[in-house]
């Protein structure tokens, strides 16, 4: 049995009991609210966890990439929604290959993509399941709600395509606004989507799926009558952002980065062996609305701040008489676990009964 | 022969002719200034490039991690300096295993580490080559110059250790100061190191190596009489930071991220299929002293700004009548190429004569 003290650092250590709790809690929430749960696997990128999510009640999974869907299909996942506009002919070809093996649906939000999808689907003799992406405020991909009907009708008229849903990711909470109201954000996301779906349905379009994000907002959006599906991702591990948003408790954070102190240059400074190649830097400290202090929460040392990083160095500022020495380890909950896991080839899973095992982050680096 | 138009995006495409030019230019600079060149391979993490650097005159390579050194040793590199304080007993054991195979030296900056190094070296019957890390202003790892002599004498007195050099990475240019003077930074780095080396040498310590960073400052630090070695890394590819620092020309940037436009939500906005899992976010826009506009330089569209990213989306703002459409590709020079390459499992190498080939980023994800 591997001992945790024998792990080489830096590494990610994941508590399997917390993962099971998080998977079960979201599944139960979805059941109670009568919505389908289709977790986004971007957070873990590990087939074993995707299979656990499905076995606990998820109808399938969500991916952002065709390549991620291929990895998951190869490992037994049979129902995948690629929540992304697939536009390149080469990628559409791969989607069609997947559609012959498993139940797959993809995002669409332009006629340019829809026409190529239609052409290839017709040629291959398959019907592609599509969901129209609606922009509910993030200003990312997606059609504006008031333009959804026109685009949906044009797409639905093309052969080889079955436009049967709409989806969005609002994520207003990530936009750097100065206020943060998850409930209001989730309810607004749900409301816009249900109104949009009704306009399409009233025009005769067969919109069955009204699908919304995200770990912090899903439990509110799901309460809007007419929402059929939620696609949270981060909830499986949770992270510091979600604790600060009060979307989870710190005890529900399953994944921590384990680092070793390599230098104590002065009593108020420590340097650890994890930097920006170990911890993601996409969620920066001191930014509104979260105003996170540093790049992670250092377990047991609430006053210590991981305030600065180079590629392989993490600089911690602490005012306390911490007594920490070179060679000791620290466990840190990163600001954003999804992009942090993405930096690691494997993670360590701890389990009180079975000790530690390694899981490969099989779908990481699958950028295309 | 693979055509560039057939590459799935997002991906990194590297122009081999520019790489060769960059390798040759730095090697020639080192020769002319009478310093040894020991490139840091953190930028590329690819053995083939490390071997090219050595064949063009580098005395060996630099790594940050034991694991990177192991990968490079496995692929024929025989002289490696791990420019990092190695403190964990398990890692020291691996260093000793390497020391039995190749010429290896490592960083040291604490007695805690030195004592364990000495203990294991003595037990294994090897002599470990060490270099003392000196902090020349970055406030990262390293001993303060005025404390270097005392620590060096204590370390040198331990059995099994050969303390034969000092090293630093100043990187003052990365510290967010409001001014940027590479020449002054490099000269100061060199001057502090030479003065420190002389103090140690005058006390009878055998300090042969006086080793300094970095791609933007090495050509200045190397001109200080007494500096013996430079360890630039980024110069092999260059990046947008270095162009803005005027440390290279944009034509000397060898590595670009190729992305596909997946959405044109409005005439002044584009969304591409590369976000924070494709482009590193450790060098943020609008920060002093560089004040970079966005996360990369979009080739051919100087007015366009990659202003915002989610994990798999890059949001570009443009005021020009760009005429770009869904499905077209863009090439982007990232702000920081080292941490960007680190996100990719492989890169594509282009060469006018031989077309395109793939190289695995073999030492990426080797965090321990």
Describe this structure in words.
Two copies of one chain form a homodimer. Chain A is α/β, with parallel strands linked by helices. Chain A folds into two domains: 120 residues, Lyase, Ornithine Decarboxylase, Chain A, domain 1; 222 residues, Alpha-Beta Barrel (TIM Barrel). Chain A has ten helices and 17 strands. In chain A, α3 packs parallel to α4 and α4 crosses α5. Chain A is elongated and about 70 Å long. In chain A, 54% of the residues are buried. The model of chain A has no long low-confidence stretch (mean pLDDT 95).
Which pair of chains has the greatest number of interface residues, and how are they split between the two chains? A-B, 63 and 65 residues
Sheet having the most strands of chain A: 9 strands, mixed
Summarize model confidence as the mean pLDDT of chain A. 95
How many domain units of chain A? 2
Indicate the percent of residues in helices of chain A: 25-40%
**What's the total number of strands of chain A?**
17
* CATH-derived topology of the largest domain in chain A: TIM Barrel
Counting DSSP H or I runs of 4 or more residues, the number of helices of chain A is 10
Tell me the series of helices and strands of chain A, N- to C-terminal.
EHEHEHEHEHEHEHEHEHEEEEEEHEE
Q: What shape does the CA trace of chain A take?
A: elongated
Oligomeric form: homodimer
Q: How much is the radius of gyration of chain A in Å?
A: 22 Å
Which structural class should the secondary elements of chain A be placed in?
A: alpha/beta
CATH class of the largest domain in chain A: Alpha Beta
């Amino acid at each position: 049995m591997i001992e945790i003290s024998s792990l080489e650092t830096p590494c990610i250590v994941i508590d399997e009991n917390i993962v099971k709790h998080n998977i079960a809690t979201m599944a139960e929430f979805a059941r109670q609210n009568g919505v389908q749960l289709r977790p986004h696997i971007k957070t873990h990128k590990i087939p074993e966890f995707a299979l656990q999510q499905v076995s606990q009640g998820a109808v399938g999974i969500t991916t952002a990439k065709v390549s991620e869907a291929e990895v998951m299909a190869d490992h037994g996942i049979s129902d995948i929604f690629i929540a992304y506009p697939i536009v390149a002919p080469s990628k559409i070809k791969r989607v069609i290959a997947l559609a012959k093996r498993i139940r797959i649906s993809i995002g669409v939000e332009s006629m340019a993509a829809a026409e190529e999808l239609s052409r290839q689907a017709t040629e291959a003799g398959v019907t592609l399941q599509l969901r129209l992406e609606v922009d509910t405020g993030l200003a990312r991909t997606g059609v504006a709600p008031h333009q959804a009907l026109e685009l949906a009708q044009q797409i639905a008229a093309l052969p080889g395509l079955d436009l049967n849903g709409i989806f969005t990711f609002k994520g207003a909470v990530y936009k750097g606004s100065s206020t943060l109201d998850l409930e209001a954000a989730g309810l607004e996301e749900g409301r816009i989507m249900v109104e949009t779906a009704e306009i399409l349905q009233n025009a005769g379009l067969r919109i069955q799926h009204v699908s919304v994000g995200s770990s912090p907002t899903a439990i509110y959006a799901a309460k809007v009558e007419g929402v059929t599906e939620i696609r949270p991702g981060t909830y499986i591990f949770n992270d510091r952002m979600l604790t600060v948003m009060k979307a989870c408790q710190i005890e529900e954070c399953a994944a921590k980065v384990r680092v070793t102190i390599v230098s104590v240059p002065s009593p108020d400074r420590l340097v650890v062996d994890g930097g920006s190649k170990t911890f993601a830097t996409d969620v920066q400290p001191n930014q509104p609305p979260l105003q996170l202090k540093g790049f992670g929460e250092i377990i047991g040392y609430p006053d210590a701040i991981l305030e600065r990083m180079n590629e392989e160095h993490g600089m911690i500022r602490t005012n306390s008489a911490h007594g920490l020495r070179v060679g000791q380890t620290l466990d840190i909950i990163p600001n954003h676990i999804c992009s942090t896991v993405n930096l690691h080839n494997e993670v360590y899973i701890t389990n009180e009964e079975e000790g530690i095992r390694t899981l490969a982050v099989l779908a990481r680096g699958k950028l295309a």
